[in-house]
Amino acid sequence: MYSNYNTKTQNNQNLNQNPFITSDTFDYITKNVLRYKESKSRTKKLLNHIDTLSVLDIETNKLSNNVIKSVEDCGSWLEFRNYFEVDKTKLHNANFCKKDKLCPACAMRRASKQVKKVMTYFDENPEFKKKYWYYIVLPVRHNASESFTTVFDRARSGLNTLRKSINNNKMGKGHKSFFSQFDGLMYSFEVTKTKSGWNNHINLLCCSSTPVEDIYKYTFKDGKSVYQHKGIMEDWAKYTDNKSFMHSINKIDVSNEDVLIKNLLEIFKYSMKFQSLENKDLLEAYKSTYKKRLLGSFGSLYGIKTDVSLNGDEVLGDKFLEIIFRYNFWSKEY
Of 31, 54, 237, 307, which is most buried with the most CB atoms under 10 A? Predict the structure, then answer.
């Protein structure tokens, strides 16, 4: 079934009056259409910014024509499938640009698919839910005068040293690392920028067969508090070139699905953080991290492959109502 409505009002009225469409289906489709509309508005501002770049800026900041075309066309059509026999609706496909550091819609879709993939892995491997789980954040020191690349490389180098220390400990070599007590780790790099400069930090989801002892609560002068551990502070200072020591550690209950999903989103939402950057900063971060891995796992969690395909969602049956939306670039509506 294909319907082409000229305005948002006509679109919603006709869709809502369809006897096959339940209120939940209508709300799901409306929410996703709005998400892609907002995403296209965000990427349009980015592309307009690129058009205003001076000749001197083009070499360092301009995106390739293929990337620009892909981002511009992303979400120009959306294919929903309403599996009415099981009362499920999915955004089955679209012309995704797959540039999740530039496109908010692709960032959200990738994150949700990655969370779902890990949740499936947990369901298929129940022994993981019997372990002790912790969410750790490892920032690196920085100042406003440092470039993105300088701060980002400091975080990457720190993570690589952390990984090597764990491997050395397994072979009975080197300084006993705090992190060697974890048999599995999943990580992501998170990027933001404030008045104090580029803030790059690493999110870690870690599991262990034994609980972590001696976690304490640290309270800042402004009254805010975090949970910390002396071992993390000492090791992270060793692993970074400027002795970064700030961190936080929180125990999480993976038997609570909502809690687990919340913490998995903290790992997988790294690319969504790019959307909060100013256009010029977004381009700098994108160009500096192009083809660089910002997400991964090792140890017992290495078996969880975090790569996902944005094309084609799961098929829930051979009977469905297909609903296709097309984007009108003039009216900026679906």
Answer: 237
> Residue 224 is encoded by which pair of tokens?
């805010």
- DSSP H or E stretch at residue 274: none
How confident is the model over 73-84, as pLDDT tens digits?
999 999 999 998
- Cβ neighbours for 105, distance < 8 A, ≥ 6 positions apart: 35, 36, 39, 40, 74, 75, 96
Q: Quick one: tokens of 74?
A: 């992303």
Which residues, listed in sequence order, are joined to residue 249 by a DSSP beta bridge? 136
Tell me the per-residue pLDDT of 224-246, one tens digit each, with 9 for 90 and over.
Answer: 999 999 999 999 999 998 899 99
CA distance 48 to 31: 26
Task: Strand 248-252: give its sheet, edge to edge.
Answer: 248-252, 132-139, 197-208, 184-194, 295-299
Helices (H), the chain: 8-17, 23-51, 55-61, 65-73, 104-124, 148-170, 230-239, 257-268, 270-273, 279-289
How far apart, in Å, do the first and last CA atoms of the chain sit? Answer: 16
**At residue 77, what are phi and psi to the nearest 5 degrees?**
-145, 145
pTM of the model: 0.86
